[in-house]
Design goal:
InterPro entries: Tad_N, vWFA_dom_sf
Shape: rod-shaped
CATH superfamily of the largest domain: von Willebrand factor, type A domain
Strand content: 25-35%
Radius of gyration: 46 Å
Protein name: Putative Flp pilus-assembly TadG-like N-terminal domain-containing protein
Structural class: alpha+beta
Number of domains: 4
CATH class of the largest domain: Alpha Beta
Organism: Croceibacterium xixiisoli
Keywords: Membrane, Transmembrane, Transmembrane helix
Helix content: 25-40%
CATH architecture of the largest domain: 3-Layer(aba) Sandwich
């Protein structure tokens, strides 16, 4: 191998070798490359942490606003709920972060405002003296509300008068809960054009339509002109003729041509003859003695003078009670109800004397007795009555299945109005003034001063109210709303089906109240029913209810059903059907059990398991406020 003539030595070759500059160049470029890559990594970590931080802040603010809606204040307890929700949604350890500083407060508009900050330790950039990246997030939760209709279906049965262990009665707690509901909504962000309306259906054994009728929302023509009642009647069967008038005319005087004794004069001067038989007119014609004058002091005869006369007597036939000791017969009778639904005064008999009479034989109810008047009767005491507004339902069917609803169950038809061709399609005024209970003996002596049904057995709750717009510009409860909830009276048994039937009927946008419910067809509205009860179904066979007196009329259960269990089971089936009808009309149903367990029927009635238990007044008020916050819709604005 020939030698390399250009070889000059190692050091000159090394100096001339450019390959050695690569390391220096790489070393010089490494620092900015690490900074660029490190910043990218740190920014990526910061972005992911910041996103999670913002989500947790939002969740905490929403939880805080819900807590504010429930209690009406924002203190340590409510802040604690917000913090708990924040921590549940943000684990600072997974990002190697420090402890975040999360705080919330309520602003002047009752929005919950949250802020959070936390340092993010760097992994790469701390080599460049960038040790932490400060992360911050802000969040605000508010209540916002659109057009909304809320129908309150409220159990106002007798048990609502009972006291709670924490103080106060159940009904007072309910009144406060409705007020809390309103105040929660009033704290929401409401646009000027937004409309909020409330309606009410207080229920027990029936419902009260008087307010709907007086306002013109439910025409009086929707009520029948007669209805069957458990009432009492009197029979007049003993005929008696009584004189009504007598008229006597006299003629000229006549003198007996002969002198006669006083005895003979009396015979000659007092003859008469009567034609006709009562009660027809009778005419009595004859003579009456004018005078007998003795001829002289010693004579036994004298002058006899008489005068002719004619007396016309008129009579009428009356009828009296055959057995005054048992004059009242307690039974079912169809009674004329004309005028009741018009809210005018209607006369009825309250007492019948043992010697009472009428001019026509027959058996008469208390309204028919009052209609005789003083010219055609006697001994009958009457008074005027005004319908209280409670009603009896339309025709129904005795059935054990209501899915689908049978065609004849008009009570469960929440949309149709009465049909002139079907008398059973009309509602009936519940005329409690003439309603009487009875036992196996159809006769009973009069119960003075009472209609015999105890108060819970003849309950009539407070009037229903159709949707009414609520002023949301004030921070106080409207006067009319205060007045209404204070008027709620408690009595009677628990008929859940009656309450829900009328809650659905009064709320339906396609039913008989559609002109109220859907008065703005071009605007959508959120629709809610809030159904509150403090007890399970409590049907009573001897109470006067929307279905009459069940033990005597058997409109719901078959005759001979003595136990309340089967009766309540049938009412429960009707309740389920009514709940479904309300849902079919687009309503969200919220159910609250106040001091009572939530039964399967109540839970299934609610929409999406929106069923809540409230064990005391505080929980009831909190539940109403919470539902209001859900109705209003919590939203994030930041």
């Amino acid at each position: 191998m020939a030698p390399n003539k250009n070889r000059t030595g190692f050091l000159p070759d090394l100096l001339r070798n450019e390959a050695g500059n690569t390391l220096a160049i790489f070393a010089a470029a490494l620092v900015p490359m690490l900074a660029i890559i490190g910043s990218g990594v740190e920014l990526s970590r910061a972005y992911m942490a910041k996103t999670q931080l913002q989500n947790a802040c939002d969740a905490g603010a929403l939880a805080g606003r819900k807590a504010l809606a429930e209690t009406g204040q924002y203190g340590r307890t409510e802040q604690g709920k917000a913090t708990t929700m924040f921590r549940a949604n943000f684990d600072h350890r997974s990002y190697g972060l420090g402890v975040p500083n999360f705080t919330t407060r309520a602003d002047d508009e009752n929005n919950v405002v949250g802020t959070v900050s936390v340092p993010l330790p760097t992994v790469i950039m701390n080599f460049f003296n960038f040790e932490t990246i400060d992360l911050e997030a802000n969040c605000t939760a508010e209540l916002q509300i659109a057009n909304t209709d809320v129908m309150f279906v409220l159990d106002t049965t007798g048990s609502m008068a009972s006291s709670m262990s924490g103080g106060g009665t159940r009904i007072s707690g309910l009144r406060d809960a409705v007020r809390d509901f309103h105040l929660t909504l009033a704290n929401a962000q409401i646009q000027p054009e937004t409309r909020i309306r409330y309606g009410f259906v207080p229920y027990s054994t029936t419902v009260n339509a008087r307010g709907l009728v007086s306002a013109g929302h439910m025409p009086a023509s929707f009520f029948s002109s007669s209805a069957p009642f458990q009432t009492r009647r009197v029979t007049f069967s003993v005929a008696e003729n009584v004189g009504t008038g007598s008229n006597t005319t006299t003629g000229r005087e006549e003198t007996n041509a002969q002198r006669v004794t006083q005895s003979a004069c009396s015979t000659w001067a007092t003859s008469s003859n009567t034609t006709g038989t009562p009660p027809a007119t009778t005419v009595t014609s004859g003579y009456q003695l004018v005078s007998w004058t003795r001829t002289n002091f010693l004579s036994t005869t004298g002058t006899c003078i008489r005068r002719s006369f004619q007396t016309t007597n008129t009579f009428k036939q009356i009828f009296r009670i055959a057995n005054p000791a048992n004059k009242w017969r307690y039974e079912q009778a169809t009674v004329n109800t004309t005028g009741l639904a018009g809210l005018g005064q209607v006369a009825y008999a309250t007492d019948v004397a043992d010697t009472a009479w009428v001019d026509t034989a027959g058996t008469y109810d208390v309204r028919q007795l009052a209609a005789f008047g003083s010219q055609r009767s006697g001994g009958i005491t009457t008074t005027n009555s005004t319908w209280g507004g409670c009603l009896m339902e339309r025709d129904t069917v005795r059935a054990t299945s209501f899915n689908p609803i049978p065609a004849g169950a008009l009570d469960l038809d929440i949309n149709s109005e009465p049909d002139a061709g079907n008398p059973g399609s009309y509602w009936r005024p519940m005329w409690l003034d003439i309603a009487y209970d009875r036992n196996a003996n159809p006769y009973r002596r009069e119960q003075t001063g009472t209609t015999y049904y105890p108060i819970d057995y003849r309950a009539c709750p407070t009037e229903m109210m159709a949707f009414r717009e609520v002023d949301m510009t004030s921070a106080t409860v409207p006067g009319w709303l205060n007045t209404y909830v204070n008027s709620l009276r408690v009595e009677g048994f628990t008929y859940h089906d009656v309450g829900m039937i009328w809650g659905a009927r009064l709320s339906s946008p396609t039913g008989i109240f559609a002109d109220i419910v859907d008065d703005r067809p071009d605007e959508q509205a959120n629709r809610h029913i809030i159904y509150m009860t403090d007890g399970e179904m409590d049907a009573n066979r001897i109470a006067y209810t929307a279905y009459g007196h069940e033990q005597l009329e058997n409109r719901i259960a078959i005759a001979g059903t003595l136990d309340t269990g089967p009766l309540e089971a049938i009412h429960a089936l009707r309740f389920r059907a009514a709940c479904q009808e309300a849902k079919n009309e687009g309503y969200t149903i919220w159910v609250i059990g106040f001091g009572t367990t939530i039964s399967d029927d109540l839970r299934n009635c609610s929409s999406g398991d929106r069923a809540f238990f409230a064990g005391n007044i505080a929980q009831l008020r909190s539940t109403f406020s919470y539902i209001a916050s859900q109705v209003a819709d919590l939203r994030l604005t930041q």
